Amino acid sequence: MNINFKTIILFILASVLSFSGFSQERLSNKEKKKQLQEARASRLFIEGQRFLILEDYDRAYFYFQKAREISPDAAAINFKIAEILLRANRIEEALQYGMRAVAEDPDNKYYNLVMAEVYTKQGQLLEAAKILEGLMSNSEENQNYILDLASLYLSAGDLDNALKALDRAEEYYGIVEQLTHQKQRIHLRKNNLNAAVKEGEKLIEAHPGNSQYVLNLVEILFNNGRTNQAIDLVNKSLEAYPDQADLQLAAYALYKEQGEVEKSESLIIEAFANPDLDGKVKADAFSDLLREMRTVRRDSLMDKLEKSMREYNANDPDVLSVIGDRNLINNRKEEALVFYRSSLDKNPANAQVLQTVITAMFELQKDYSEIEKYTIMAVDEFPERPEFWFFDGTAKLTQKKGEEAENSFLKSLETNKGRNIQLELLVKASLGDTYHMLGKKQEAFDAYDEVLASRPEDEHVLNNYAYFLSLSKKDLEKAKSMSERLVKKFPNNSTYLDTHAWVLFQLKDYEGARKYMERALENDDSPSGVMWEHYGDILYHLGNKNEALSYWKKAEGGEETSEYLLKKIKDQKYYDE
């Protein structure tokens, strides 16, 4: 219960004037003193009221108490003190002052309302209800408190009186949705389904053509096992208002529940052909079908529904998204991306579609600058989502935007706040790669160590850590241990074989390096330039200089080759990196 206690100006003036009223007759000294006291109390009351309006409650309370010292029984003063105490949640004290105010002026609406609020906060809900009942019986003007009364009875668990109050509210406000739904809930709590249905029928009759009211009653009937009655209600409504597509969808679901497949399918096709049916409603129904077991009949129905959506809702983001879902489920990822991206053009604030697009683009190895457009969109729309910052950092890292990638990865850690441990480890692994790109080698190695402490078999970290240590010619035995674990576990992985070969090379085990590099080349359909260069370096150190030169030449123009490659070819000599 939340009753407004703002002071009515006329009421204040009346209260103030009640303290002072001067007579033209000659007064005795006693009467003069009393009059002066009343005038002083009036001034104190006005000062208290001024501070109350300024929301300086401590000063207001001070002046009202001073006024009360002079006029302890003044109803207005006790009321104002009760009001301030109630605001401060000093309920027991507020009760005492409120009772004094009501005792002096039992018919005053505002004094009674403050008492009702006190009783409500005390949990004496029926006492509060009793006060409202009294106010409403005394004046027709107080009927607007009927909803507060109903709420009190309902909170107190007095369902019968709550229903009576809601019936009175309906007489006052008319048949409206909120009252009907509350009455239905009470009837259902009392296991009186017929009464709940009757209330729904009354609402429908009062508002003909409102399909939502029909749907609300259909839901009650269906949930309580009265499917046939629900079907009759929908059909009756469709006879009167045949173009209500949302009712056609409801009828589709009901007939489908009854096993009348052909009837149900005709209804959903008719509903989808209605351009006025909201795209999201169609998308939700289409999505429900998509989750069902795939059959020839289901796919045929979905083809017809998709055709309708494309015709009537071609620019609806929810429709575009759900058509994308269908393509994705059917493993048509490229087609799915077309629809998802069109959906995001219309509505970028869809986290699920954004994540699907980004992950699909990574999986399909799309251009990273294109992927970055969507990761930027994602962090702009959902800056609180750590996974989107991770995607953004990854897109930037692959484009060698080191500092930007670092910022995004750090933002991912900041927003994650340690909640998703797996994501945090992925981010730290990527941070290690980023730090190494930026020349922050020790920060990179520290990040890798942190990941391996929690996930010692992380393949990405083991490989990159071992390789970067070999490039730095640092902790080579540690690097060998890591790369060795990988090639034992993945004996045909060309990347891991290449890393292990290069670690052995730095350890001057050239024969071992040759063996693993040859296996790496055998297991890679299109070896990178750096792999050919590494093989040439190994052969050079084994004394096969002519062969080394041929592989250096083969590496020329390839990816990730060293800055010394051309010098090696020109001078036919190995140069240490």
Automatic annotation (TrEMBL):
Residue ranges of TPR repeats: 41-74, 75-108, 425-458
Keyword RNA-binding in annotation: no
Coiled-coil ranges (or none): none
Transmembrane segments: none
SUPFAM superfamilies: HCP-like, TPR-like
InterPro entries: TPR-like_helical_dom_sf (IPR011990), TPR_rpt (IPR019734)
Keywords: TPR repeat
Source species, domain of life: Bacteria
Name of the protein described by the UniProt record: Tetratricopeptide repeat protein
